[in-house]
Design a protein that fits this description.
Organism: Sphingomonas gei
Structural class: mainly alpha
Distance between the termini: 34 Å
Shape: globular
Strand content: under 5%
Helix content: 55-70%
Protein name: Peptidase M2 family protein
Strand order of the largest sheet: 1-7-8
Pfam family, one: Peptidase_M2
GO molecular function: metallopeptidase activity; peptidyl-dipeptidase activity
Keywords: Disulfide bond, Glycoprotein, Metal-binding, Signal, Zinc
Number of strands: 9
Radius of gyration: 24 Å
């Protein structure tokens, strides 16, 4: 679930295309002035705005009419956007040295300077070498295969099989073969890539690439790292309780020979290749009878004769009830709602703002089911955010930080509670599940949302330590295993050594996509949800809250959305929640009934690992 149509410098960062930090040693010249820096900023924003309109249209056509020709056009415009990001980052680094810059000018130049994920240095051939390595790693991942019962199996199929199999031997084979076949061969190239990118980051004025990544959060990079540690400590007790409970259930199912009663969990038993979300094994851990809540949203939709249009109109109605203006007529004319029968399209749900003004669209292949009903509410959250900040300068047309955009969609999706379904006429009031069903509902959510947190944190912690030199090339595997044990409480199913590189078996590592945004979004969604429920005067359990129809909540939310990235993210957070600090406490409150239940179930069990 993504949004597109944002500035191409953000797209360039997502593409992780290597960039040249310098092309030649600069000649001696006078230091730039603040006035020249402002002229540069103005020129950049004008050029980006003009470029984005065409590039967004090309990307839309490619996603909705997939052919060799549209692939080529999209690739061409992606390369052009990357080239612009490179050129502007270099110039921004130069202008950032100008005396007398305002805080606003410094911030805009930092946005431009940190828009590249992998910069290359001045050494002859370095840029091409970095580009070749980056492309090679991405291709190795995309073409990667594991095995199941000795037969090759693709990445998408192995993910599905990991969620379905309950055979420990099969799980071990899939986990080991994927990491051995996909991750291990990347090891040498990843070390080379790291060295080149670090040299490039130095050329842009950063100590290393990890520091460059952390510089985009309106605080010193070292303070941001401390913030992530604080947030993890906020929610760690909930994760440890979940880990303890799930470990006991896995021991009950598989026995001591597969999963011991104490210590770490075997990483291949949790229904996901990376053990980042555990919802696929809910059947193994579910309390008796907990899964029957008395209704299924998909069946309710079908009973009320909902089609794709009514589903989208209902999602729009949620935002309209908060006071937001209706979506433009062009939204209904230009969006892709159904999979066409006559051509290939990219069905993965996404939200678009093609002209960065009012040409809002979603792209989905909608089916009448619960998942797509939730996804529609989520994607429209991106559209309303995009429209809210449309009048800001180009560099500020984005979320307050890279965790905000996803968190907006996620917090709205949290609002699809039984109470909301009653309010919109989908669920009869007499059919609202009682409090006795809360444990199962919360446990199912926690198996994904809570289980993800340590993984969401450690992927970038691992890379920060590689970039800084704390983890050296001869310790890549040990460093990964150490963090997996420290944060997730997991161990590999088979012994690993320094011929391995299991981290490369994760797409975001092979593709050099920063990951902390997902950790932040998981926490922010609960913080936004609690703020909305408090403003609405909700008095019941937080996980039962509905703020549908509350114009006060809508007004506060709009104030935050309209800020886009124009102010440091604590300002935006304060506008809606009243606090300037991201916190894990709202998530803890949301899952408090589950935490109490888990503590009862875990009595006599050793906590931690």
């Amino acid at each position: 679930m993504i949004r597109t149509g944002i500035s191409m410098l953000a797209l360039a960062a997502l593409l992780a295309t290597p960039a040249v930090a310098q092309t030649a040693a600069p000649a001696a010249q006078a230091a730039p002035t603040a006035a020249e820096a402002q002229a540069f900023i103005d020129r950049v924003q004008k050029e980006y705005t003009e470029f984005n309109l065409v590039a967004s249209r090309v990307a839309w056509i490619n996603a909705t009419y997939i052919t060799d020709d549209t692939d080529a056009l999209a690739s061409d415009y992606g390369a052009r956007g990357t080239e612009m990001a490179v050129r502007y980052a270099l110039e921004a680094a130069k202008y950032q040295k100008a005396p007398g810059l305002t805080a606003e000018q410094q911030r805009q130049l930092t946005i431009l300077r940190s828009a590249i994920t992998l910069p290359a240095p001045t050494m002859p051939g370095a840029a091409q070498q970095l580009a070749d390595i980056s492309t090679k790693l991405g291709s190795m991942y995309a073409k990667g295969k594991g095995t199941l019962n000795g037969k090759p199996i693709s990445g998408s199929d192995i993910e599905a099989a990991m969620g379905e199999s309950r055979n420990p031997q099969e799980l071990q084979e899939m986990w080991t073969s994927w990491n051995d076949n996909v991750g291990a061969p990347m090891r040498g190239d990843y070390a080379k890539m790291t060295g080149i990118a670090n040299a490039g980051a130095t050329g842009l004025g950063f100590p290393d690439t990890g520091t460059m990544w952390r510089s985009a959060y309106d605080m010193p990079p070292e303070e941001f790292a401390k913030l992530t540690d604080k947030l993890w400590n906020d929610v760690k007790p909930l994760y440890v309780a979940l880990h303890t409970y799930v470990r006991a259930k896995l021991n009950e199912k598989y026995g001591d020979a597969v999963q011991s009663k104490t210590g770490p969990i075997r990483a291949d038993l949790l229904g996901n290749m990376w053990a980042q979300e555990w919802g696929n094994i809910y059947d193994v851990v579910a309390p008796t009878g907990a899964g029957d809540v008395g209704y299924d949203v998909g069946e309710l939709l079908k009973a009320k004769s909902y089609d794709w249009r009514k589903m989208v109109q209902t999602g729009e109605g949620f935002y309209s009830s908060l006071g937001f203006a209706p979506l433009p007529e062009s939204f209904w004319q230009r969006s892709l709602f159904l999979k066409p029968a006559d051509r290939e399209v990219l069905c993965h749900a996404s939200a678009w703002d093609v002209d960065e003004k009012d040409d809002l669209r979603i792209k989905m292949c909608i089916k009448v089911n619960s998942d797509d009903f939730v996804t529609i509410h989520h994607e429209l959250g991106h559209n309303y955010y995009q429209r809210a900040y449309k009048d800001l300068p180009q560099l500020y047309r984005n979320g307050a930080n890279d965790g905000f955009h996803e968190a907006i969609g996620d917090f709205v999706a949290l609002s699809i509670t039984p109470e909301y379904l009653v309010q919109i006429g989908l669920l009869d009031k007499n059919a609202v599940p009682g409090a006795d069903k809360d444990t199962g509902l919360l446990l199912r959510q926690a198996m994904d949302k809570v289980a993800f947190l340590p993984f969401g944190l450690l992927v970038d912690k691992y890379r920060w330590q590689i970039f800084s030199g704390e983890i050296k090339p001869d310790g890549y595997q040990a460093g990964w295993d150490k963090l997996r044990l420290q944060y997730q409480g997991l161990k590999p199913p088979v012994a690993r050594d320094e011929t391995r590189f299991d981290a490369g078996g994760k797409y975001h590592v092979a593709g050099s996509v920063p990951y902390t945004r997902y950790f932040l979004a998981r926490l922010l969604q609960f913080q936004f949800f609690k703020a909305a429920c408090d403003q609405a005067g909700w008095k019941g359990p937080l996980h039962r809250c509905s703020f549908y129809g509350n114009k006060q909540v809508g007004a506060r939310l709009a104030k935050m959305l309209e800020m886009g990235a124009s102010k440091p993210w604590p300002d935006a957070l304060q506008a809606f929640t009243g606090t300037r600090e991201i916190s894990g406490k709202p998530m803890m409150e949301y899952f408090a009934p589950l935490k109490k239940w888990l503590d009862q179930q875990n009595k006599g069990q050793p906590g931690g690992w």
